[in-house]
Every structure is written in C-alpha cells, then in structure tokens.
C-alpha cells in the first residue's frame, strides 16, 4: 500500500486508514482481529479510533476499541509496525481542558498497552475551554513523549481558523497543516440517509504538529 504525507508533519502514513469505531462492540473480537490482520497484510499501518468508541452501543462504555487494539498488539507483537491515532473530547462530560486531556492520554495509553500515541486528535471542539489551554495541554503531552503528533477531527477548517488554530502549542513548532481526510468522491457517493457528522458527508480536517 502506498503512503502519503501527514500534512507537514514530516511523516508518511498509509493512504488508506482503517477506522475501528465498532471494534470490540458491534464487531466481535475475532472478526475485528481478522480485519486488523488483513489490513496489516495488505501493507496498511494507519489505525484510527477514539477513547469514546463506542459508549453508545448497548453494553459499551467507551474504550472498547482501544482495549481490543491493545490485546491484538500484545498477541502479534507488532506495535512498532503501526501508526496509531486516537482522540479525546467525545466522552459524555469530557472537554478539552488540561486536566481532561492529561487523564485521557493516560487512559488511552493504558488501554492500548503502549508508551506513545502517534497521532492524538481533539475529537470535538469545546468552546467552553480556552484554545490556548487545549493547545498547551497537547504540547505538554508531546514534550513528555506520550504523543508524537496532534490534530483536530470533525472540525471545519473555518472554525479552526476562527479560533486562532495557527497558534503554536507549548512543546511544538511549525504551522498546522489542514487537509480533508475524506476525498471528494467519497462525499459525492454518500447516501442521502448518512448523518450530518458522517465522514462521508462532512469535510473532516487534521492539523498535524511537528514536535521540537
């Protein structure tokens, strides 16, 4: 599988990222691991999840997808072959404050069974928290070596620009690089019934930051 640049972060990732929202909940463990194995065998390495996946599914409480990844990586011994992306801010009652981000990073690392997250997204914008606090909290996690790159998901570029997203967080350098994560053809083929937040109907953006 070919690779593409992750914004201006100076790192290449698989052109096709495997989204794992329902792994460990609606998708049973055996099937989830088979899909992960097949994706890796096809040359992929870029996996995406979030700390809140999938709390809304019956029997789910959030973190199931990350925990499944952790079990899979332990069994396969393949952590160093992967580029892991997860998110914070989507759990009920969770915001993007320093305290929330710090706690969420530790929780994700524990569930994943790893010492680092390759790409860490702000899942949903929270206007009740100062952007500077959010960016500084992300930068502190980068400085601590627990996060390599940071980004923003499900956030229109205009909203990021409006809130001054060009500000550089502590511990990071460079200008954010925003790019649509979903190609035009995918949006064009979206079914009429797709929800407004669906990646097939909205222009998801990523903001890659370069650690010092």
Q: What labels describe this entry?
A:
disordered C terminus, TIM Barrel, 31% helix, globular, two-stranded antiparallel sheet, 212 residues, five-stranded parallel sheet, 9 strands, alpha/beta
Plain-language structure description:
The protein contains six helices and nine strands. It is of the alpha/beta class and 212 residues long. It has a single domain, classed as NADP-dependent oxidoreductase domain (TIM Barrel, Alpha-Beta Barrel). It has a five-stranded parallel β-sheet. A two-stranded antiparallel sheet has the order 1-2. α3 (98-112) packs parallel to α4 (131-143). The longest helix has 15 residues, at 98-112.
Residues in helix, %? 25-40%
**What is the number of E strands?**
9
Strand content: 15-25%
Shape: globular
For the biggest sheet, the summary is: 5 strands, parallel
At the third CATH level, what is the topology name? TIM Barrel
Summarize the helix and strand pattern as letters. EEEHEHEHEHEHEHE
Parts with pLDDT < 50 across at least 5 consecutive residues: 170-212
Q: What average pLDDT do the residues reach? A: 79
Query: What is the terminal separation in angstroms?
Result: 29 Å
Tell me briefly what this model is.
The protein is of the alpha/beta class.
List the helices and strands and how they pair.
Layout: E1 3-5, E2 12-14, E3 18-19, H1 29-41, E4 46-48, H2 64-76, E5 83-88, H3 98-112, E6 117-122, H4 131-143, E7 147-152, H5 157-162, E8 172-180, H6 184-188, E9 205-211
Parallel strand pairs: 3-4, 4-5, 5-6, 6-7
Antiparallel strand pairs: 1-2, 8-9
